Amino acid sequence: MSVHALSLTATPFISSALASQTRRINLARSLKQEVALVSHFFDCKEFHTRAAADLHRSVFTSRSFVVASSPARAMEKGRSFLSMLGFGARGSSAAQTDPATAGIPHGPDDDAPAPGQQFAAFGAGCFWGVELAYQRVPGVTKTEVGYSQGYTHKPSYNDVCSGTTGHSEIVRVEFDPKECSYENLLDVFWKRHDPTTLNRQGGDVGTQYRSGIYYYSPEQEEAAKESLEKHQKSLNRKIVSEVLPAKKFYRAEEYHQQYLSKGGRFGS
């Protein structure tokens, strides 16, 4: 084949590739402008750096989406990234609250543990792995994953992933205090995640992944704060974990419950 013929044959493919790359570059520029605007609003250099890194991975390599092994997690990562950039379901039902139920999410967790048991609640990134860690603790009799600390009544998984409801993915642990101390549960919390990264654990980014200890009694509050102070001394970065009263717990969809122990994403 002559050079001329070869060039004519290859031209459509080259044009297509260039058009695709141009679209990516234009998208990157558009998102970069959004990052800059949001960064300016928050006046946060760390946000800008982190967002720019995620922007590069998402637009040019798509790694932050490919690493998700299930369609639900891939969709969540996409929503989390856009939420971090300031996109999201603005004005959607996810962000709206019904005046009749507005106070319920801010109320206390009104569920009751089994007789002789106590509740504890933790947020430490994606609740799948956190729940599995607590399932393996002797003295823990029950675990549930769900959403709390937000301002929308009965949020769905998609609502929480939109970044507009303020909820955190948490694990509520029911334990026998005669067999497992609350301090032991706190030790698992610190070992299970990085408490110095704000609204992020590994590749999972979004306010729903924030680090938090949610206490059910003054004794738990005191133990949590003492544990935080003690753990801070062993780190050279500031702990960003919130320590707050437990609020209304919204149990997550059934397929999230004990997800890894049931073999989800091939278990762990």
Detailed description of the structure:
- By secondary structure, this protein is α+β, with helices and mostly antiparallel strands.
- It folds into 2 domains: 3-61; 118-266, Peptide Methionine Sulfoxide Reductase, Chain A.
- It contains 8 helices and 8 strands.
- The strands form 2 sheets. It has a 6-stranded mixed sheet, covered by helices on one side.
- A hairpin with a 2-residue loop joins strand 4 (200-201) and strand 5 (204-205).
- Helix 1 (3-42) runs antiparallel to helix 2 and helix 7 (182-192) packs across helix 8.
- The longest helix has 40 residues, at 3-42.
Task: Tell me, briefly, the overall form.
Answer: globular
The low-confidence runs, each spanning 5 or more residues with pLDDT under 50, are 6-10, 30-71, 82-95
Encode the helix/strand succession as letters. Answer: HHHHEHEHEHEEEHEE
- Per DSSP E runs of 2 or more residues, the count of β-strands stands at 8
Proper CATH architecture of the largest domain: 2-Layer Sandwich
Assign the structural class, choosing from mainly alpha, mainly beta, alpha/beta, alpha+beta, or little secondary structure: alpha+beta
Q: For this structure, what is the CATH class of the largest domain?
A: Alpha Beta
- What is the rounded distance between the termini? 55 Å
Radius of gyration: 22 Å
The largest sheet, given as strand count, sense and whether it forms a barrel, is: 6 strands, mixed
- Overall tally of domains: 2
Average predicted confidence as pLDDT: 77
Name the beta content range: 5-15%
Strand order of the largest sheet: 7-6-1-3-2-8
Measured as a percent range, the helix fraction is: 40-55%
- What is the CATH superfamily of the largest domain? Peptide methionine sulphoxide reductase MsrA
CATH topology of the largest domain: Peptide Methionine Sulfoxide Reductase, Chain A
Number of continuous helical runs: 8
